Amino acid sequence: MSTMAKLKHVLVIPSPAQGHVTPLLKLSHCIADYGVKVTFVNTESIHAQVMAANPGLDDESHRIKFVAIPDGLETDEERRDSTKMVDSVLRVMPGHLQELLEQVKQQSKGNEDEQINFVIADLTAGWALEVAERMGIERAGFWPASVSTLALTLHIPKLIEDGVIDNKGCALKNDLITISKDLPPYKSNDLTWSCPQDPTMQKDFFRCTSAIPGYSKHSTSVLCNSFHELEASACSVIPGALPIGPLIVSASLFHLRGSLWSEDATCLNWLDQHPAQSVIYVAFGSTTVFSQEQFYELALSLEQIGRPFLWVVRPDLTDGLVTEFHDRFLQRVRNYGKVVQWAPQEEVLAHPSVACFFTHCGWNSTLEALSNGVPLLCRPYFGDQFLDRSLICDVWRVGLVVVSDENGVTRRHEVRTKILAVLGSDEIRANCLRLKEMARKSVGKGGSSLKNLQGFIKDMIA
Ligand code: UDP
Question: What InterPro entries does the annotation carry (predicted)?
Fold first, then answer.
């Protein structure tokens, strides 16, 4: 990779969650490839988790320096309380970031290369853009979800003004929501701040989401982890959107993408022992929580399908104790099922023996599946996952949805039927291969995303 004329020092700051840290760290690796110095700022608790789970990440300090600032909370228990977390982050983190920037400025007096002269902030932590602007530092936003989600988010003030949603983010009518004639309408149950199982969380989520249109005014461009060909109409309604995805890191840096938990690589050897396109991969991201009942239904569906499966069961995947059930289940499926606590997901999805991906439709998981041409089975849990499901199933037609019953539980019969339908669909597989090729082109030489990224970096260091 060529080194540009005048080097800069960029500070990159994600929101404190897996789905935000990973894409921004990938972006940091891409930027560092151009010889630009990167300081990556996590909260202290995320920093500790990332360092513990990724031995060797510190050795990257010649390319990326990892720095931590407090989030103002003492325990993980407090961090699981969304109201406490949002209040605390907004109260203390802007001040800590400003102190950090001032400290670097002091320390780098007389050494221009060390001075931080650009900030890239997750728009969900858009207060960092306000800090940068106050301090006269150039900046850009970053959006870790789909451009379609960003378009809806930036239209929140208009949706409230037009009486489409109330000021708590609830849809006032059951109609389709149109924000532009150039963009297909959104379903009223695809609102991206929705948390059906937890009204308090929805309130906090909407409070954060509705701040984003204001934050976005502090930067002229928003780097998006998507590609133009995938979401052309959504890109067209956001003038500053710069799609640069799907963000990927070279295989040599795979282990440095910032997992919060240690990746269990034994599943890759296990996958090696299976024929091409035979394994059902099941993973619901970093935050999904299931009731005991839902957990049992999923486990029993995988058991009854009887095909090889790899299932990521985080220690906190359920809200009740399932150890006894889980142990008996593992015994029964030991000849065809493998369960890990956290997988190297991108390698798993790139593995030839994976046949389909049963997912919660988090945006990173969605893009990782699309980039590898893997058909999806969708069981969204909260937030933008509902809209991602609609894009996957209705727009790109690369997957099917599993529906829940009147108690919100997805039953084993439904899972079984839909998994078999996904596995048997030639149309879905053909669409997957088409999108995989489009994704590959967009980040390849002359591709739309690579051009956008190169143009951005050129402007940044000019
Ligand atoms: N992931 C992983 N191992 C797992 C499960 C997930 O590395 O066992 C990664 C996955 O590759 C993705 C991220 O965690 O990059 C999850 O982000 P996503 O946006 O899909 O979901 P979230 O966790 O934010 O709900």
Answer: Glyco_transf_N (IPR058980), UDP_glucos_trans (IPR002213), UDP_glycos_trans_CS (IPR035595)
